Amino acid sequence: MADVKQLPTRDEVDPELTWDLTPIYQTTADFESDFKAVQDAIPELEQLRGTLAGGADNLLHAITAILAVIRRAEKVYVYASLKHDEDTGNAENQALSGRTQTLFTTLESAIAWFDPELLALDPDKLTAMITENPELANYKHYIDTITDQREHVLAPSEEKLLAQAGDALGAASNTFGVLNDADLEFPVVEDNDGQAVQLSQGVYDQLIQSTKPEVRQMAFKQLYAVYHQFRHTLASTLAGNVKTHNFNAQVRHYSDARQAALSGNHIPVSVYDALVKAVNAHLPLLHRYVALRKKILGLSELHMYDLYTPITGEPKLSYTYAQARDEAVKALSVMGPDYLGNVKTAFSSRWIDVVENQGKRSGGYSSGMYDTAPYILLNWQDNLESLYTLVHEMGHTMHSYYSSHNQPYQYGDYSIFVAEIASTTNETLLTDYLLKTYDDPQVQAFVLNHYLDGFKGTVFRQTQFAEFEQFIHEEDAAGHPLTADHLSDHYLKLNQRYYGEAVISDPEIADEWSRIPHFYYNYYVYQYATGFAAANTLADRILSGDTSKRDAYLTYLKSGSSDYPIEVMKKAGVDMSQTAYLDQAFDQFEKRLDQFEALINTLNK
Ligand SMILES: [Zn+2]
């Protein structure tokens, strides 16, 4: 066998490059004592059932008692899950994580009575309770987010029935997961070096970026041949999932599945419509970028499998972790001394688990809770992509830090709709910093292309998905069967409209809908696109040098879940119910596309 680079085992990693979890629990005994405290407190929470109608003091007592136990349980959970992820093969850590999950399930079922009982209170009486009791008023928005759902909560017997049907209603989605992750078998193909390699989703993601057209073409054709073979099954699982969303929306008295899904975060559907409208109005920009890609690659035909190969050659930037840390600090310095001080604390206090080791969870994330540091997991590689991941996760970590240090526990977290804005704003600041710092035209071209590809994949592609998601829910609601042919016909037309004339409409791409797990997430993907566009406006405001605009951004980071997401973003300076922020993002895309085109013309002279 060829020489394979061995990853270090967990205990071979330099402790300075690992996260320090001892501030959470000094010893395992400390963990066990909190675990037991949660276990002992759970039965007491069940005894509070039936007390809420007794008055403001009773309601306040129930809320604080429940939140106190959840808070302790979250700490236990975060510790166990971080331990688990640093070495997923470690049996002791597996046991910790498994026990903690069971603890959470028990806790959730012990407090399941709370929301229905709160909703059963007379609304006027509830308002009076909150007005009379100043301590209870601290939980007003928390209570509002529950009572907002009043019209959509059913009678207790119906709720019970729906809860019991939950597993059955989720079957279509589970079947897709099992088929896609476990049962589908892909053929052996050739990689970049002519070596035979077993195709998989992960291998496909690498091969589709190959600089050799025949390698990416083969990967594309072979992957889609497998999906094509199962297209009727996959249409059936997708249709089953859509039917579940439509059924839930209907029985809960929403006008449609989209309204039901967005109401969870109190997002008006106009945000979604504005996105789709603005993206469609700017599709000529995507067509122009795609045509430029064809020209630079020197291809007589541009296929769907030519959209992911890098067009500016091998990356010209590489960083060790120590260098990347310095670059991150410089790129984020526009956030001001307070933010920067906290970033430096993240580096010096070992909040970051840096390098890969055997059994470590892949990818990168930021995770923590109110009473712990917001930790970051990385799998460091000496390249630009890792630097982007570092500032991205640092964005989440600072958001968590500011929210937990400026809000009471009940408002110390935040919703997914606002989460990706904090991380993407940091990425946008890094792009700006790199373009201002490196004069070398090849580096400039590389960074610009990184930005353009990111925009294509996030704003254009995710909105294409969002449009398709809306289409399939509407079709099912109108009684039109979601057959494989119907799905593929529509998807192909949608894809042609998005990519335009410069790309050959390969028939295989008609089946792309069949392999996208996000279509099972229930109106999730549009948030990637809105988040990316909002980050663009926010980064512009921060870079303007006007410290009041920067402070407005910090106000957003400090807001946690104390208000609805759209309101929080308004405080930061971006109104996501209007289209101006989207237009501003497209202006930036166009400007950088011009810059990139001019650079490429100079480099090729
Ligand atoms: Zn993120």
Automatic annotation (TrEMBL):
Record note on cofactor: Binds 1 zinc ion.
Required cofactor(s): Zn(2+)
Example GO molecular function: metal ion binding
Residue ranges occupied by any Oligopeptidase F N-terminal domain in the UniProt entry: 117-186
Gene Ontology BP annotations: peptide metabolic process; proteolysis
EC number: 3.4.24.-
CDD domains with a match to the protein in the record: M3B_PepF
Record Pfam families: Peptidase_M3, Peptidase_M3_N
Domain Peptidase M3A/M3B catalytic: 207-586
Keyword terms: Hydrolase, Metal-binding, Metalloprotease, Protease, Zinc
InterPro entries noted in UniProt: OligopepF_N_dom (IPR013647), OligoPept_F_C (IPR042088), Pept_M3A_M3B (IPR045090), Pept_M3A_M3B_dom (IPR001567), Peptidase_M3B (IPR004438)
Record-stated family: Belongs to the peptidase M3B family.
Function: Has oligopeptidase activity and degrades a variety of small bioactive peptides.
The protein, known as: Oligopeptidase F
Species this chain originates from: Secundilactobacillus collinoides
Top-level taxonomy: Bacteria, Bacillati, Bacillota, Bacilli, Lactobacillales
